[in-house]
Amino acid sequence: ACAAPGGAVERVIGAGFPGGLDEAPSLVLAGVERLDPAAHRYLEDHRLAGQPVLPVAMQIESAAAAVLRAHPGAAIAAIEGYRLLQGVKVEGPTPLAIFVDPHAGGRIDVELRGPGGRPHARCTVVVGAPAPLRPLVDCGDLAPRREDGAAIYANRRLFHGPRFHALEALEAIGPAGVAAILRTDPRDFFAAERALHTAPLALDGAFQAAVLWCRDALGAPSLPSRLGAWRFAAPLPARVRAVGAVRAVEGLTATLDFDLLDEGGVVVAQVEGYVCTASPGLEAAYGAAGSEAA
């Protein structure tokens, strides 16, 4: 069997939690990212209900980039404990302040804040040399279902525009999990050339595969709320096979793990504890996104 050891809609598009946020540790400002669709071109291809929304994968990238600016020459081994607090809607140029723990060693807490100091997301950036990864999932018995990625996007089963067309093909899907071929090399994400440190297109591609699983198993598309870990063993090749296992389902909320494999079957990255929530109400937002971003 495919197995893994051991209100998201509103949060992504901006409503946030109704209350009860825990206090962040003592953090200092590390920098401010100016989110501008003219410069951050990927925003045009990540719209919900016609509104550009900062992808979770790019929130994680911004957190890692801020840590690397503070620690030149360091390497990112993982991002852990990501929690979405409130979605980042981009209505014209939007400042995103990045706060970090100045006293941390190899595990650096990061918080992203919008105008007025409102927290949007928190995570921990793990600095250090990447290490080999043991397989996290086993989905050898998934029923094959080959579908071309271009057709999936054209049919608006995913809302993503061309820059986020990570899914080259769906290979298999069933109650226990999903497998897909992903493209990992971002194209034209920024107006000016910029290095990326956390393979955001591959991470978003795993999230997209989870959307397809939610459609198939839960009857509705999904959006993210939490991520246990995004780990790297090596630089990712241009294409990977993502194999996802469903760890738990509670109502319309699912938790999945993913191994990302190179052509030799070696695990080069892992998604652990990805939590997403499906909602039939997302169909309208997906449709509006597709009509503008396609």
Rg from alpha-carbon coordinates: 18 Å
- The assigned structural class equals alpha+beta
Ranges where pLDDT stays below 50 over 5 or more residues in a row are: 5-10, 13-21, 290-294
Report how far apart the termini are. 37 Å
Count up the helices: 5
How would you write the strand order of the largest sheet?
A: 1-5-6-7-4-11-14-13-12-10-9-8
Summarize the amount of helix as a percent range: 10-25%
Largest sheet features: 12 strands, antiparallel
- Into which percentage range does the β-strand content fall? 35-45%
| Overall number of strands | 14
Mean pLDDT across all residues, rounded? 89
**Morphology call:** globular
SSE run:
HEEEHEEEEEHEEHEEEEH
What key attributes describe this structure?
single chain, 294 residues, alpha+beta, two-stranded antiparallel sheet, globular, twelve-stranded antiparallel beta sheet, disordered C terminus
What topology emerges from the helices and strands here?
Layout lengths: L7 H6 L14 E8 L11 E2 L2 E2 L3 H15 L5 E9 L9 E7 L6 E7 L5 E9 L16 E5 H6 L12 E8 L2 E7 L16 H19 L3 E11 L6 E12 L2 E9 L5 E12 L3 H12 L1
Antiparallel strand pairs: 1-5, 2-3, 4-7, 4-11, 5-6, 6-7, 8-9, 9-10, 10-12, 11-14, 12-13, 13-14
Helix pairs in contact: 2-4
